[in-house]
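A note from the maintainers: we've had questions about how concatenated examples are separated. There is no special marker in the raw files; a new sequence line simply starts the next protein. For clarity in this README we add a label.
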Amino acid sequence: MKTQRCDGGRILVRLAVILLSLAACTGALAQKKAEASRVLIAVNEGGAANADATETVLRFEDFGQIVSKAIGAPVTIVAVRDRKVLREALRRHAYGFLFARPNDVPAEAIRDWGYQAVVNAKEPSRALFIVKSDSPLKSIKELKGKSIVTPDQYSNIWRVANAMLRDNNIDMGSEKVRAMRDQAAIGWSMEGGFFDVGVVNSVSGVGRTWEMKGGRVLAKSVDLPNMPLIASPDISAAQILKIRAALINIESTDAGQAMLKKIGLTGFRESNAQEFLDFLKWLGDLKPDQQ
């Protein structure tokens, strides 16, 4: 009888261990499934912002919750600043969404990799050619032979500046051009008189304050898509409609206005693929080694 009780006890212990192991496996599988269903939102603010990755994730957390509620799935904000990394990930459809200030990369994702236009920021961006108040320059047509400082070579604002000069019969590749990643540094260089003209994004700190500080805008581009949100082919048309409606109407609530202020926008408008295709056609394509 004693032996039978011992055997029975061992069986119960083994059974308990098996059940605990099954529960642990089930929990792990459920966690992996939840992680797999999580949608990534890549955020790229380009050279107009200098936030680190942690700051970007925290600042766009409320935006992510709005998207999450609209699509009915958990989301994760991922800060991505490197354009090559971003392009490669978009090519693989690694991100469910991209929310980016540089508008050429989202445009390429729409044209080449099946991404869908959702919304743009209500306020457009522009490339600004800035000069000091006492500059003798009066027109973009006078920039041949002048020293020019721009954002990173082949960045979106660089490409816009290149197209504007091209339209005025000036080859940027033949001019004295210096590129800087930080647009604040472009402003300091212009204030110091190190260049004849600078190029900045109108929504950057320099772009917003240059004229207030006494400088002049020599030329400005046409309105450009600003902070477009695009969605991967995996996001359904019904989900896109819900996201678009939620974001366009977000400014009607106090919480929505607080979220917009947090990310530096005033609101959203509907966007469409054609405006991005037209934009890319005007820019002209980069060569593979320029991307």
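[label: protein 2]
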Amino acid sequence: MKRIIVVVLLVAIAGIAGIVRSRAKTNGGIHNWSQVVNNDKSQGGEAREQIRKTYELSAGARVEVSGINGAVKIETSESQTAEVLVERTGKSQEVLSRRKVTIDATADSLTVRAENADSSFFARIFGSKPSEQVTLRLPRAISLVARGINGPVIAGEIDGSLEVKGVNGRVDIAQASGAASFKGINGNIAVALKQVDKGGVDISGINGNIELRLNDTVNANLEAHGMNGHVVSDLPNVSVDKTRHGSYSAQIGSGGNSINASGINGNIHLTRA
């Protein structure tokens, strides 16, 4: 009886193998098993989606970009028009559906926010996530907030307050002229300061080097604590003092409003804008 069962199983396996071989010949051959399993990828490639919006903003409007799983690029001009472009990519349409992008706008504010959509527990934990690339063309006279960004943040000139928080990537700001805050950045920072207003500049929790490009007319006092690095300057009107291990102070020009830095795993370089 056992021999009969074994023979039947062998015949069944041989039949299945013959079916697979015949289908392979019909479809031009199967070179690896992934071609059988990953039908979405082999047939359709990546799923893509674009979101384009245009709004009119008032001078001094607040713009917030948050939760983006990818790069954020911001161009600025004298225009009052805000243009939003969000490009989303994923391995399939089902992957795209795991996250959603919400855009809210009024005359005084613009918010671009990405977050996880309602999905199964296993999809949230083990499934791949789509990526987002955000490109904004904004008025220069705005208040900008960028937080929770898993990618670089690159922005043009901002004539208002600036807050960059929780970024996994480099940060490059062409120019800031209001109060500025950089916190929890895993990457290098480069920012040009047109001036340091009474709100000051606050830099903390940075895992990377910091380049402060200062305008000729900037007058400020720098205090740096908890430094795993050095403060260096190539400016003629700046004197840097090391008060104790990991702590530095510097007078920029005639001194003035404060630039505070703490918890820096890298160097701070003061240079000309």
